[in-house]
Amino acid sequence: MRLALTLTAAIALAGCATTFEVPDAPVANLPDSAAPAANRSVSAGEQMMQRVATRIEPIAEDVCRQETGQTRGCDFVLQIDRSGGAPNAFQTIGSDGRPLIVFNEAMLRTIRNDNEIAFIMGHEAGHQIAGHLARRQSQVGLGGLAGAILGGVIGLDQQQSAEIGAQIGGRAYSQSFELEADVLGTYIAERAGYDPVDGAASFSRFRGSNSVLSTHPPGQQRYSTVVATAQRIAAQRAQGLTPTIPRN
Asked: Which residues form the signal peptide (predicted)?
């Protein structure tokens, strides 16, 4: 455990911060009423996903091009994972180099409404916009190197220490990345005409962990970040401004 905490601190100090500003959010009460949809079929979930995608995808791609200057890296593809497992959605890169946003069947069965699926799509697009896959891989390499060095210093097996370091390196900024993607997802969903705060109520079903080594922050922290971001957007619109995504 001491090795893990030491490595986490070392990697955090050596790593890079988030690109987009995550607000210091006052605690917002996470709704307890966001129960999953009951008895929805996968086909009905697919229809919802496709309906929402017609509005979210062009906004996400436009935000991606504006923030990254890329074109192909912003050509999102939606896929469904039919391999089973707990409700999940994630972002990855396809064999053709295009970014994928993937929902598994269990997630499609439990989504409550269009706001939830819009926010989740925006969040996953946010991972691509912020370059999280490449940045996480860099942290894995840094963690492996730090683990090997520290293991040698304190007399542990260097191979084992390197493997532990790589695992910790992959998680060192995961929570920050999730909050950053939540901010981007809030802007994307709002621009597409959805309610990201209602969409983020799904965190009551996926609350996360308080552990420093957890890949996801606690649900209440994530929900509070979305609420604060939505309030910032609303304040800009009230002044007649087009909301812009703040960078660090």
From this structure: 1-19
